[in-house]
Write a structure and sequence with these properties.
Helix content is 31%, strand content 36%. The chain has 200 residues and is α+β, with helices and mostly antiparallel strands. The chain has one domain: Electron Transport, Fmn-binding Protein, Chain A (Pnp Oxidase, Chain A), CATH 2.30.110.10. The model has no long low-confidence stretch (mean pLDDT 95).
Length: 200
């Protein structure tokens, strides 16, 4: 099997499991943990929502000046984790790779598709900065709503999408007695993909 075929196989497996998560009634199949690290190797993790995925990678949106945005600009590598306990006996999907900012056109199109309240929130929030009182955020929301009243809301300049470009994809399938099945796909520095089984 050629290298590109292995990558296509991994993406196809993700799509199959993503569909199964919907059929199994997972509360939110798009929820994923995004792990980042600072330049001095201090990790952090949070749950965000997957908004797009294709052969280019896996996309989520955020304020670029928030903590994860800052960390990913300084150290553009991330790990993603999906956990779907209702699929089969339980599956985990781990994706690791370099990170890039999506194009302005792609970010604009997604922002335009968001509910108006979410658009207002993107303008009102100073993500990850100290908030003295909830009322301060509420006042900012009211201010932004007045500012954009009766007109389309543009995307904030520092709000965009981040794409994780896979370099490693692992599928973990739960089994009785913890005899789990693990299959990993990895891309080497030359761009060649390989596939191997791992001990549980």
């Amino acid at each position: 099997m050629d290298d590109d075929a292995l990558y296509r196989e991994a993406l196809a497996t993700f799509d199959v499991l993503f569909d199964e998560a919907l059929e199994a009634g997972e509360p939110d199949r798009t929820a994923m943990v995004v792990a980042t690290a600072t330049l001095d190797a201090r990790p952090s993790a949070r749950v965000v929502l997957l908004k797009a995925h294709d052969a280019r990678g896996f996309v989520f949106y955020t304020h670029l000046d928030g903590r994860k945005g800052r960390e990913l600009q300084a150290n553009p590598h991330a790990a993603l984790l999906f956990h779907w306990p209702r699929v089969r006996q339980g599956v985990q999907l781990r994706i690791e790779g370099a990170v890039e900012v999506v194009s302005d056109a792609e970010a604009d199109a997604y922002f335009a598709s968001r509910p108006r309240g979410s658009q207002l929130g993107a303008w009102a929030s100073k993500q990850s900065e100290t908030l003295d009182a909830r009322e301060a955020f509420d006042r900012r929301l009211e201010q932004v709503a007045r500012e954009f009243e009766a007109r389309d809301i543009p995307r904030p300049p520092r709000w965009s999408g981040l794409r994780v470009k896979p370099e490693r994809i692992e599928f973990w399938y739960a089994a009785e007695y913890r005899w789990h099945e693990r299959q990993a796909y990895e891309r080497d520095r030359a761009g060649a993909w390989s596939r191997r089984m791992l001990y549980p």
